[in-house]
Structure to design on (226 residues):
């Protein structure tokens, strides 16, 4: 890769550090109508747009998330701060995961922690995840730089400068893609394993209930026969 590409990558990494995030304290404490939600998300995530006219979130998206059981329904057409937290998770997940996988990992979260008196509450969970992710930015930047250096050392025997620079760029794209692919595969396996364990628990619970029901039925039968 030439110096222009290196400078471009460094500029991207600096942009990554300064990207807008939906910080826990940014989320309003008042309930919002759908138009207000889409405006809020667009204002706070505008830096991650690839193209200027890209939509961060639309009314159709929100309605589909609710229909697909990803997002709890609004109350009297208004969305709470907890809805914003879930929408933020969906926004990041949807770029790498299937809707069915997002359901499997988000449904337990909303079932246990959405609009409940649970400890920790959803706001605490969101804040914890936010802090964890912030600590990863420096590591991610260094990792990309390292991969860029590896790619830059490849195909040095190619004499044509344009071809060499393209192949080095292609090498970096492949290295980054492989990293994403491997992590995506790990995520999918983690979700599948979690879901299998949950299904196993449900089957055991149903089996135990049936067994208990049979016991009660036998007791009632004995009482009636006396």
């Amino acid at each position: 890769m030439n110096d222009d590409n290196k400078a471009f990558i460094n500029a991207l990494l600096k942009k990554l550090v300064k990207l807008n995030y939906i910080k826990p304290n940014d989320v309003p404490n008042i309930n919002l109508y759908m138009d207000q939600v889409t405006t809020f998300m667009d204002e706070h995530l505008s830096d991650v747009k690839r193209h200027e006219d890209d939509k961060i979130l639309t009314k159709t998206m929100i309605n589909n998330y609710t229909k697909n059981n990803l997002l709890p329904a609004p109350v009297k057409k208004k969305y709470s701060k907890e809805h914003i937290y879930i929408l933020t998770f969906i926004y990041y997940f949807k770029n790498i995961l299937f809707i069915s996988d997002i359901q499997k990992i988000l449904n337990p979260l909303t079932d246990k922690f959405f609009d409940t008196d649970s400890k920790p509450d959803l706001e605490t969970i969101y804040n914890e995840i936010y802090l964890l992710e912030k600590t990863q930015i420096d590591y991610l930047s260094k990792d990309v730089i390292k991969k860029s250096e590896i790619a830059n050392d490849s195909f040095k025997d190619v004499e044509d400068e344009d071809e060499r620079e393209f192949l080095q760029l292609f090498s970096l794209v492949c290295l980054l893609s492989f990293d994403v692919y491997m992590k995506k595969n790990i995520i999918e396996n983690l979700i599948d394993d979690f879901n299998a364990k949950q299904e196993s628990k449900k089957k055991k619970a149903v089996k135990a209930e049936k067994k208990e029901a049979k016991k009660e039925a036998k007791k009632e039968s004995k009482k009636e026969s006396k």
